[in-house]
Amino acid sequence: MPTRSWIDINCDCGESYGNWRMGDDERMFELITTANLACGFHAGDPRTMLRSVRAAQAHGVVVGAHPGLPDLMGFGRRPMAVTAEELYAYWLYQIGSLQAMLHAHGMALNHAKPHGAMYTIVRGDDELGEAAAQAVAEAAPGAVVYWPTREDAFGRAAQRRGIPVVTEIYPDLKYRPDGSLIIEREKAHLDLDHAAEQVRRFVAEGVVQAVDGSLLEVDATSICIHGDGPNAIEVATTVRRVLEEAGCTVRAASAEDHATANA
After folding, report:
1. pTM greater than 0.90
2. What structural domains does the chain harbor?
């Protein structure tokens, strides 16, 4: 029997920029339940954001903001030295731009989730974690955050403000033995067997495997897929197949689910 009766699949989407195309959002929206949309800092542009919102609405996919560092050339995966005030402003700006797109289509912002190197800097710095959580609380009351753990700087800051934390696993990233993620500068072709085994192990036992072979206990309600991977569609298809074979329903988390998980 699976450890969970249901699971959410979220994906980083809307990461094209002008004539530069990244990922296959149209096909991905058929496979996921939740989308994290780029907001113009690490990727994305106004027209891409608008098209992504419309596609998500057409497929019944809930939408959240994916704030990144202002680093288009490095796709937001290069750490930057920023102040807490700068980071707070970056989050407000990106969340607000996506909210305008959603409002125009009668949709609400579901969540916020840091992208790339933004993950790295808010994870371990209490001041920056506080700034990010403050921006979410003030810009999007009622929204949740998607995050690996409730026990680091950002996770704790979110909880102090009453923001539900949706925890997730990453079948297309590698884990260090301490549970932190190895953020790649450029996504490589993923071994589908590895992704399948990570999901299968999580559903059955509530664990994922780190790079040293150790097993890490995880309490998650979502599975994250990165849409910029060269075989991201195949990864998403594999993840759904494994979940269905395990008897695990794929659906977005509800407000009641968030409240229960963070009680």
Report:
1. yes
2. 6-261 (3.20.20.370)
